[in-house]
Fold:
Amino acid sequence: MHIDPLPKKPLSGWFGRLHTSLRAVALGALATVSAFAVTAPALAEVPLDQLVRIVAEGGNSFTRTFNPFSPTARWVSTRTMYEPLMIQNYATGKLDPWLATGFEWSTDALSLTVTLRDDVKWSDGQPFSADDVAFTFNLMKANPGLIGPASGAFDQYLKSVEAVDAKTVKFTFSTTYTPGLYSLVDQFIVPQHVWMDVGDPVTFENPDPVATGPFTTIDAFGTDRYQVTKNPNYWQKLNIEGVFIQGFNGNDQVSAATLSGNLDWGGLVPDPDTTFVALDPEHFGYWWPRTSVVMLQANNTVGALADPVVRKAMSLALDRQRMINTGVWGKSVPANATGLPEGPFKDWIDPKVVDEGASWVNIDPDAANKMLDDAGYAKGGDGIRVGKDGAPMKYDIIVPSGWNDWVSASQIVAENLKDIGIDVTLRTTTADSWTNSTFTGQFQLSLGSAQRTATPFEFYRNNMATTSVKPVGTASPNNQQRYGDPKVDELLAKFAASTDATEQKSVIAELEAMFSAAAPAIPLYEQPDWGLYNTRRFTGFPTEQDQYAPLSLQMTNGPLLVWPHLERRAE
Structure:
């Protein structure tokens, strides 16, 4: 398969680190807005008014860490500096060429050949080549502590990576696993001539990065703000000088900076049509595509919650539209029975499964009560149903405090389930505690959102495969509900061994039907990807009218698609 090279203005999209601090800052009640000054760090060479000002990191204790493999790296590390071979564009559903222009599978699907762009240099002027790609993957193999899209590939399916020539890389697989394509081409690449001399790449801070991305020069750096400017050797045309990031401490500052127009990109305010766009309709806007699904996770290791009849009855009690209206200001739609968002996966979703699955994802408390009565979950004298193990159906639902959209949805879950005799208590906790409890399976009910994935394969592997089920107490970012079906494993293996799109879609349709039949997680609504823009100083942002890339700053590679489109507004 070959992908055409990028046009002068590129088309339009893992590793998306959704910073807890940013989410807590973004989601909250709108405070009284006062003027908030965005100020540049001292000794900067490029004036602040020439830089795109964004909200991407919270706090005032920034460290000069630009190691893209590190979980504590600065936001720009994988948004303006280190680039992947290709980018999964969640706005268009396409795989966009980037440092690579195309790929081809061998007949047996045991090797993948990737062709690189021939006009790329590192920011220090050294040529970019296949040796850098092979080095990056072998560096990750030798250092399992390095985090990236292709982490674990050698343990699962990858045998070797080699440079065939300067512009050709060959990936050899230990087993057929065609979905591996997306993780491999999504991996950011580091320069061999720099990193070959790094003693410990896991702890290396990389304070002066050499990279291929649009903005690599640390023009100024402070503990609460920094700015990064042009890569003098960038392979695409840029019409802006760089990006400025300032740390914010709490909702008040973010809201003030956003609504006063001191930010060009990012931020979030409640009910944006009223509180944001109305202030300056000519320049203020937002675009919230929906590329994942918020789900109610019922722990399958907890009594009656392991029964799909119970999970489906719970689903029928839920007022999804109220959750949408309350939590995300009406900017979403109820999820369907496949668990997949319709936007990016419209070509994968089987309408038959959606139609038949509507019988358990619509709201019908009377039907829910009948299901539970017929299944033998009788109500006790207090009106609370009793499980077949004799335990009352009383559960806690946990959610991080400050995640107001999920808090409000969880409140509605608790109210709705009371109507069918299930007693749910909402308990808010710290984000770290919530993550630990859900990842280790030590919870009863919780909300979760499906990871953005290139194909539905990853969604069903993450939520239904036995291989993704970890013992309670063992951490796993996937399948927190601990549901597994060996038949799912067989279908996933069939998908992974195929390069035929028709056959793969047929397999996914079977998996969709199995998800709808078992309800391993309860789909609630499609999750908006937050994104605001202000065109008073810069134009070219993705919009609902020009959906060339995601607008959300949360996506690791998404901003890379946007920078070449931005232009300084004429004075």
